[in-house]
Each structure stands twice: as C-alpha cells, then as structure tokens.
Amino acid sequence: MSQKSFSRSANSKPSAPRVQSTAAGLHPRNRHQQRYDFEALMAVSPELGDFIRPTPKGNHSIDFTNPQAIKALNRALLRHWYQIDGWDIPDGYLCPPIPGRADYIHNLADLLAAANGGKQPAGKRIRVMDIGCGANCIYPLIGNSEYGWQFIAADIDPLSLASAQRILAANPALQPAISLRQQPDSQCYFQHVLQGKEFLDLTLCNPPFHESPEQMARGNQRKWKNLGKWDDQQPDSTALNAETPLNFGGQSNELWCAGGEVSFVSRMMQESRQYASQVYWFTSLVSRQAALPALEKVLRDVGAVQQQVITMTQGQKSSRFIAWSFLNAEQQKIWRQMRWQSKG
C-alpha cells in the first residue's frame, strides 16, 4: 500500500463505528468464561499441581498472592488454550492475568470488524504492533493464536526482549509471526521501530499507569488489602512499600512513569500523528475513567479524525481502551479493500 493512497483530505467527519462490549462478563469469544478447570490444566501442565490448594467449599484453587503460583497458572492456561509451550518470565517481571489480556485482543478484533461488515479480519495480512510487549509477550501470543495476526513486539528493556525470544524459541511456529524489536529511546513509541514502508492495522499498549513509586506503593497496599493480606495494625517498618512485590509482579518501567498514564498516552498520541497514514487504528488501555477527558482533548488537538472508547467488563471490574484514527472514511475504505479484502 502506498502513501499516495491517503493523500486526500476529508471534507466531513465520518461517524465512528461503535463496538459492543458484553454487559456483564468477559467478551463472548474469550476462552476463559468459566471457572478454571484445574484438572484439565494439570493434565497439560503437571507442575501446576504443586500450587493447587483445597478451598473451604471443597473446590480447588491456587494462592493468588503467590507470584510463582500465578506464573504456573499462566503457563498452564497458555498451553491448554493456546498451545503455547515453555512460557516463562524472569522473577519480578509483570505476570499478566490471561483472561483480561485476551479480552483486549477480542475487542480489538471487533473494532476492526465494525468497519468490515461484522467480520473480524484474520490471518497474516493483519499486522499489529504491541508497544511494550514486556517479558511475557502475552498480546502477540494470544493475538496470533486467536486470529493469526502478525505482530511487531517492541520494548525498551533488552531483558524483556530476551525473555520473549526464549518463548518464541520454544514455539518455532510463532517465530515468523512475531518480530521482536528494541526501542532505544524511552521517549519514543513508533520512531526507531516502525519502518518507513510498514503499515499496521492496529497498535495496542498497556501503559504504566502509576505516576511515581509512592503512588505505586499505595496501589500495592490496596491490592494486598483486597487479597486479605494486609494488617492495618502492623508497624510502619513492616508496611508495604514500592519495593514490595505484587502477586503479578512488574518492573518500574512496566508500572510507573513520570506523569502516569495520561502523560505516557498523550505523548503516544502526539507522536502517532507522524504515522497517520501507516496505521488504521491506534489504541491504548486506560486504567482510570478520569483520565479520558484529558486524552480526548489531546486527540482533538492532534487532529484525529475518529476516536472512541471501548469499555470491557470483567466481573465487577471495568476496564477500557481508547482508539483513534487519522484516516477519513474514504481512506479507510481503500485500506480495507487493499489489505483485508484483496485476494492478491
């Protein structure tokens, strides 16, 4: 696809296609609708059995405050549902909850489908960039497994990329589908990674949402209270702090940055304008509803033609991502014809 295809300017703003999210629960195509079947998971990943414990109701579960237990659960889920072998991450790196990550992928597929007659574009024609793939590389793994999409997985941390490479090495069929690239500049998102003639149907990102280590420490405290592992009477000397590990782990660059998610995503939006004709939809998770007005203003300032917020519901928890595009309706039509519908 050539740059010339998108040289027209729009005389009117097209209305954004709406994406429907489930009213209560995970996306309908999400494989994790039901309670974990620990017997089936242990059948494909016996090491999970070391972490299984009986519940007061006589069921099986794991200790969700134990990072090693969560890592073993993720390994089993990926092997059982997505045929991913040898998944692992270094200690202390972000260990993502699989169901929520899958929901983002399925809602992204619906975002594309909303402009494609309700059909999710699939296969290697669809190219996606994960900004900050982390050591877990979870979005490319699920996105390729579910839809056959091709991924650029970028990160600034060489240890994260080395971990992702080990996962790909254990799954040779994935290597042609997922390209790992290091971002050398922490202030850049697309520059240095996206090449001049590369086109992307989607970008995705799970940004660091805390503004400081202190804010992260307060978040840690709330999480541990919710897990029933916090004692309000304990002396300050033993209180949780920014160094206290979370059950899901995470390095500093994965969890916080100056200005938090508003600053991080705003810079991404501003830089995205330079790649307006190379990307159909830019997207990013946004953890706080209150952050949306500031981000929507940035999109107006940079001239995004379309923007929308897609809400995802997981039990009693809601999350969301914001999507934006610089392509007008005619440009998007040409894109779909050339990339999604062409037989050549």
Automatic annotation (TrEMBL):
Annotated stretches, region: Disordered: 1-30
Instruction: Kindly list the GO molecular function terms attached to this UniProt entry.
Output: 23S rRNA (adenine(1618)-N(6))-methyltransferase activity
Q: Which Pfam families match?
A: Methyltransf_10 (PF05971)
Q: Does the keyword Lyase apply?
A: no
Subcellular localization(s) per the UniProt record: Cytoplasm
Q: What is its EC number?
A: 2.1.1.181
Record InterPro entries: METTL16/RlmF (IPR010286), rRNA_lsu_MeTfrase_F (IPR016909), SAM-dependent_MTases_sf (IPR029063)
Would the keyword Zinc be found if you checked this record's keyword annotation?
no
Give the Polar residues compositional bias ranges: 1-23
What the record says about family reads: Belongs to the methyltransferase superfamily. METTL16/RlmF family.
What function does this protein fulfil? Specifically methylates the adenine in position 1618 of 23S rRNA.
Protein name as annotated: Ribosomal RNA large subunit methyltransferase F
Organism per entry = Oceanobacter antarcticus
Q: What is the lineage of its organism?
A: Bacteria, Pseudomonadati, Pseudomonadota, Gammaproteobacteria, Oceanospirillales
What gene is this protein translated from? rlmF
